[in-house]
Amino acid sequence: MPTLIVAFCTFKRADRLATLVAALRGQSCPVPFEILAVNNNSPDDTLDVLARLQNQSGAPLRVVTEAAPGIVPARNRALAESLDHDILVFIDDDELPQPGFLEAAYDAIANEGAQCAGGQVAMDFSTIRRPNWLGDELLGFLAAVDHGPDRFWIQSPDTPIWTANIAYDMQLFRNDSPLRFDARYNREGTNIGGGEDAVMLKTLLDRGIRIRYRPDMAVLHAVESWRLRRRYFIKLHYRAGLRQGQFQLPDYPNTILGIPPFLVGQLATHSLKSLGLLLTRNSGQIRQVMNAAHAWGRLAGYSKRQRN
After folding, report:
1. pLDDT tens, 205-241?
2. Distance CA 188, CA 11 (A)
3. How many domains are there within the chain?
4. 71 in the same domain as 11
5. Is the pTM of the predicted complex or chain greater than 0.90?
């Protein structure tokens, strides 16, 4: 019988942990499961809260502390701690699993033959006001995922799944010790950006790994107020472009002062479009400014790589 562990990495969210662990312990699952909490050197009372939760009934809770700062060391610690299990299910500390979450994850890996699976991430605006400018087309940048009601095999990064709710066949990582979350995409503390899960997804797709979308593997994502500001979306896109310029763009032979002219052209085009939309107060202005920020990040990242 396959063994299953569900893991979450946590930093300074002690107030959410009791609800999360209770929701996980309340899940139905075809096999007994263990919960793993990876504390990433939280400065609050996270360890005290987790110690109390360990003494409560339900699925056993194991707690480890990863001293290296950032989400990538924490996620890789979770992988290392879970190598003796058959299935690892990740959930974030700002999510709540919905009914059927673990059943769907188990079924995808154990019965459907998926090596990786993920599902819907819905935004929870029940305790916070959603800004008028935040259209549905922007929710994906808050980690929302909804690819429809049907199951399917994911073939492209255009239908992503994230570590907010993702399951892995741990044979992937037992058989390939270098396969881990990429440290170049680390995100420390409350910084934004990262992208380590998107890079892992692309790596698995490039290797032909069987990846399953399961809409019933659903979680509810708590949206924090500081993310509901335009500058968050702009900064997020700048940092995504920065890392793309540093680590993903090829070395272009035709440059001026080390910079490919087309990157400058893209920045100029997006900046002028942004200015036009801002002047006319067009409703699409925030999305266009995000594009300009991404273009600026790509240029800055490429320039930084050349200097190094």
Report:
1. 999 999 999 999 999 999 999 999 999 999 999 999 9
2. 9
3. 2
4. yes
5. yes
DSSP letter for 129, please.
P
Residue 46 sits in the same domain as residue 153: yes
Residue 191 one-letter amino acid? N
CA distance 60 to 200: 28
pLDDT band at 254 (very low <50, low <70, confident <90, very high): confident
Domain span holding position 104? 4-225
Same domain, residue pair 63 and 106: yes
**Per-residue DSSP letter, 228:** S
Report the CATH number that the domain containing residue 167 is assigned in CATH: 3.90.550.10
Q: What was the pLDDT predicted at 268?
A: 94
Do 98 and 218 touch, CB atoms closer than 8 A? yes
Residue 239 pairs in a beta bridge with none
Q: How far is CA 45 from the centre of its chain?
A: 24
The residue type found at 121 is V
Q: Where are the alpha helices (DSSP H) in the chain?
A: 14-25, 46-54, 71-81, 101-106, 171-174, 196-206, 230-247, 261-280, 285-307
What pLDDT, on the 0 to 100 scale, is given for residue 233?
95
Whether residue 99 has pLDDT greater than 70? yes
Q: Tell me: pLDDT of 293 over 90.
A: yes
| Cα separation, 134 vs 20, whole angstroms | 27
Which residue among 191, 225, 259 closes a domain? 225
* Whether the Cβ atoms of residue 112 and residue 153 lie closer than 8 Å to each other: no
Q: What is the predicted pLDDT for the residue at 271?
A: 92
Average pLDDT, the chain: 94
The 10 Å Cβ neighbour count of residue 140 is: 13
